[in-house]
Design a protein that fits this description.
single chain; about 15% helix; alpha+beta; Jelly Rolls; binds magnesium ion; 8-stranded antiparallel sheet; 2 domains; 5-stranded antiparallel sheet; 2 helices
Length: about 280
């Protein structure tokens, strides 16, 4: 074998070896991609189990805020929801003793006593699933915003509107289920006046850094009578009545409020699960 044939054979041998090793690698890769169904099974036990009843009944791990018997989980609330300009003072104010919730309990429901003021939970909450049932009067009295108006205030600042929106035109971001003055519900899932209605509200609180800047805004998902009306909607800030909203830093947990808007609205079966 002369020098010339050696110089031809060596590169050829190298090329063959390289090709062989590349094909082995490809085969190994192929084997890695051959997943077995069991490889993605997660056997870590779910430690907590809850018992559940019919739709709307509190699961066994829920914090029951009203079971139809008394207002022991509630207190009178100061002033008006949401009291934005004075939030820091407001926070001090809401933590003082404001006395018993002034609404009436009858027939397994709590009823707004118009003119007595808002109420709020004694416990404070951040991220929650809140279930609440509400009813506006069967007999129609008033129109627009003056017909069965109340509201559910997450953290006392973020309102999902309660209103008799059965054939009752008003501004759409103020109708039942609206994130008040920020976002209309996707559909009007209202029942007729006098019928009980449900909200399931999934609320993610806003997060602030130490200098009060918003790291993460609040998000809200709402089912009205089981129908999705907000899907992780971003809140612009507290739901103010006048003007554009802007976040004001506040604690991680605050009370849930219910509004006395001067109308005879009733509530029952209120519970939360902290998220
Ligand atoms: Mg309202």
């Amino acid at each position: 074998m002369n020098l010339r044939s050696i110089s031809t054979i060596i590169p050829l041998a190298i090329a063959i070896l390289l090709g062989f090793s590349l094909s082995v690698c490809a085969q190994e890769q192929q084997e890695e991609l051959e997943w077995h169904p069991d490889l993605t099974n997660d056997w870590t036990p779910v430690e907590d189990s809850v018992s559940t009843g019919a739709y709307g009944e509190p699961p066994s791990d829920a914090i029951v805020l009203f079971d139809g018997t008394d207002l022991s989980e509630w207190t009178a609330a100061p002033g008006y929801f949401p009291d934005i300009p004075g939030v820091p003072d407001y926070l001090d104010a809401i933590r003082q003793d404001h006395g018993e919730a002034p609404w009436k309990v009858e027939d397994g429901a709590m009823h707004v006593v118009p003119g007595t003021g808002n109420i709020m939970t004694k416990q404070e909450f951040g991220d929650v699933h809140l279930h609440i049932e509400w009813r506006t009067p069967e007999e129609i009295d008033g129109d627009g915003q003056g017909r069965g108006n109340s509201g559910v205030f997450l953290m006392g600042l973020y309102e999902i509107q309660v209103l008799d929106s059965w054939q009752n035109p008003t501004y759409s971001n103020g109708q039942a289920g609206a994130i008040y003055k920020q976002k209309a519900p996707m559909v009007n899932a209202s029942k007729a006046p006098g019928e009980w209605q449900t909200y399931d509200i999934f609320f993610e609180r806003p997060h602030f850094d130490e200098d009060g800047s918003v790291i993460k805004p609040a998000y809200i998902t709402v089912l009205h009578n089981g129908v999705l009306i907000h899907h992780r909607e971003k809140l612009q800030g507290p739901t103010v009545y006048i003007g554009l909203s802007e976040y004001v830093p506040h604690p991680r947990k605050m009370p849930i409020g219910l509004q006395d808007h001067g109308d005879y609205v009733s509530f029952r079966n209120i519970w939360v699960r902290e998220l």
